[in-house]
Amino acid sequence: xxxxxxxxxxxxxxxxxxxxxxxxxxxxxxxxxxxxxxxxxxxxxxxxxxxxxxxxxxxxxxxxxxxxxxxxxxxxxxxxxxxxxxxxxxxxxxxxxxxxxxxxxxxxxxxxxxxxxxxxxxxxxxxxxxxxxxxxxxxxxxxxxxxxxxxxxxxxxxxxxxxxxxxxxxxxxxxxxxxxxxxxxxxxxxxxxxxxxxxxxxxxxxxxxxxxxxxxxxxxxxxxxxxxxxxxxxxxxxxxxxxxxxxxxxxxxxxxxxxxxxxxxxxxxxxxxxxxxxxxxxxxxxxxxxxxxxxxxxxxxxxxxxxxxxxxxxxxxxxxxxxxxxxxxxxxxxxxxxxxxxxxx
Length: 345
Ligand code: KG4
Ligand code: ZN
Description:
The protein is an alpha/beta fold. Helix content is 38%, strand content 20%. The protein has two domains: 2-116 and 298-340, Nucleotidyltransferase, domain 5 (2-Layer Sandwich); 127-292, Nucleotidyltransferase, domain 5 (2-Layer Sandwich). Strand 9 (265-269), helix 9 (276-283) and strand 10 (289-291) form a beta-alpha-beta unit.
């Protein structure tokens, strides 16, 4: 079955066609970064307008690259949440209208389920496993029982990890989006240059939770306080020390979850899963089977949406023409998150 998946939750207009949840026939991602760069962050109004402008050409290109026509497509899917409301609405309404006019099934897909599925597009992964979902909006450690059955063990209590990368980069004028810029600068720096404070969320209630707001504040406003003697005050050193603390904050909680659950497979997803230090820290744990999506599938894309949709489709799920978008994930609390009820706001 061929599914056409549309993703427009933030600043990428994306469309992909995926066969049987596995074979990527085309994967077009039109990034709006240059339009937001001058504002040092995503401007929601610009994002929605660019999606309106680009959605049709991007979908056409996805069909052309796959050498297919609409007749060859079995179902249409789109991200329904979470994300920027205006941006979500463009891709979602476009997809729904397309499905209605072509008389094809329509599927709404949670963006975070998409990020988790990205690694499945190129790997055969058995459930259950531990998921590490790290993006610009979320930091989630979860037990994954099935493609839409997640048990949230921990989340951030304040900023997401991607947000911390972006804000540190913005403050120091390094550029937008900050993650990949800091990652690259950190390669030329020494992480021992500063010892930033690590969050002390050690009580039972926060056993798997992370926090990045304190780290962000320390790096931005109190950098000197945490600097170690003998190290040059360079942006490379600052990036390396910040990145080290951010990544170890994530892995310390993840490894706790590994010990407590006994699960040894870890699947990462989301933009921050592209981070080279996060990858190397997990690779050091040779007792674990850590699976990352290829770099191209870490960021937002339509293939991950089409991939998840295939499994809904196979199960017989369909979404109605009255289904809507939502900026947040309401189930985004510790405990069971039944993403199957994906249209219940
Ligand atoms: O998943 P994504 O593309 O969009 C959201 O769903 O939010 O994630 C974007 C986030 C941004 O915060 C970006 O700075 C971060 O992912 N990111 C990285 C790297 N590449 C992208 N963070 C750290 N290291 C990277 N190499
Ligand atoms: Zn994303």
